[in-house]
Design goal:
The complex is a heterodimer of chains A (231) and B (203). Chain A is an alpha+beta fold and 231 residues long. Chain A has 6 helices and 10 strands, in the order H-H-E-H-E-E-E-E-E-H-E-H-H-E-E-E. In chain A, the strands form 3 sheets. Chain A has a 5-stranded mixed β-sheet. With 203 residues, chain B is mostly helical. Chain B is globular and about 60 Å long. The chains are: A alpha+beta (231), B mainly alpha (203). Chains A and B meet through helix 1, helix 2 and helix 5 of A and helix 1, helix 2, helix 5, helix 6 and helix 9 of B.
Amino acid sequence: MTDHEFDELMRDLDPARAADVPPPDSVRHRSIRDRALGEPSPRRSRRVLVAVAAALVVTGAAAGAMVLWSDEPDVFAVSCYAEADLGSDRVQGDPTLGVGPEACAPLWQSGGAFGDGPPPPLAACIVDGAVGVFPGPEGTCGDLGLARSVGGETALATMVELDAALRGAIVQTPCVSPEDAVPAAERIVADLALDRAGWTVRQTTETTAERPCASYSVDEERKLIAIVPIP
Amino acid sequence: MPESSREQRFDDLYRTTFAAVYAYCVRRVGRRDDVDDVVSEVYAAVWRRLDDALAADAPLAWIYGVAYRTIGNRRRGAARSLRLVDRLRAQPRERATAPDDHVAAAERRRELRAHLDAALAELSPVDAEIVRLSVWEELSHGEIADIVGVDAPLVRSRLYRSKQRLERALQNRDIGWSPDTKGSTTREGDTSGPSGTDQGGPA
């Protein structure tokens, strides 16, 4: 690898992309400036559009979105984003439908605030300890620098910590064997006091010569961390 | 200076440097909400020392220096959330199980980036910053020297050695990258990094 090639690789992997930077006319651009000057941010920047999605779906109302404003976004279980961009418009999902993409799907359907057809692929990520759902494929959370939501009722912050710890202990090179991954995961579960909440770790399939390394999946419903042999 | 005029000068500086400073912070902090906080903190310092910023030969490089110190202070303070983000960013990710082309390319890109983050983490913080400032911010050795507090000739030699180490580290990780395979990564937008040319040092 020449010096030029190295520079080329590093530039190609530059985490700063044009889409990351709030545009000059955006609320975030203004909000950061106001915070720097010690001025109160415009309340709009802390507001979240609350669409009454269910009502729109039921009534089949056309594009005229029925919206309310709220100043307390943190209480919402699921924030639905209009674009795969943290600066895009947010709408509260319908918590009765779930705490994942399903809570936002109606917004993309007929009469919804975001679309008027079949929902696009939706990715559930963790944003400030709550779930944020973005349009995009599976890798969208990673592209945004966010952890994937592993869903469910367990405190999301704990799930973020769990996911990060499991990644650090198991999903790394060189490979960790499933036999070593199980006790490592059990230690993590104990460290996070999840064992007291009934969480267990189990290798779900046998290790083979073709699949010597471990990966994991988190089944929040069954409170199970499954250790899975992979290539 | 009347406050309104001072604010206008700040706004002019903010408008012309914001994108580059924001990109600088994204590269080093990662999480968007944390980036917003850091950028706000950086410009709060700029506001307090506006005369110094405007008197600098290159205000953007001066602000980079503020951002460098701001992020360093925050890392030393080691907010739990930032440590978590660092861990997330430093770990190679799982491969997608059933990738289509887009997912596979994005996954490959994340994997490469994780390897690069891990390799950078093996350098000293100053050496890693010298590499980032050279490649991503495209600053001169003199500008880098002013920001990290190292003599310019040393910047040149440390940059050379650091790149050699990074290249070896990446080759040892067998990331399979070459100029021919570069196109397999998905470039989802331009870097929009600042040119940073002919800029002097920060205060």
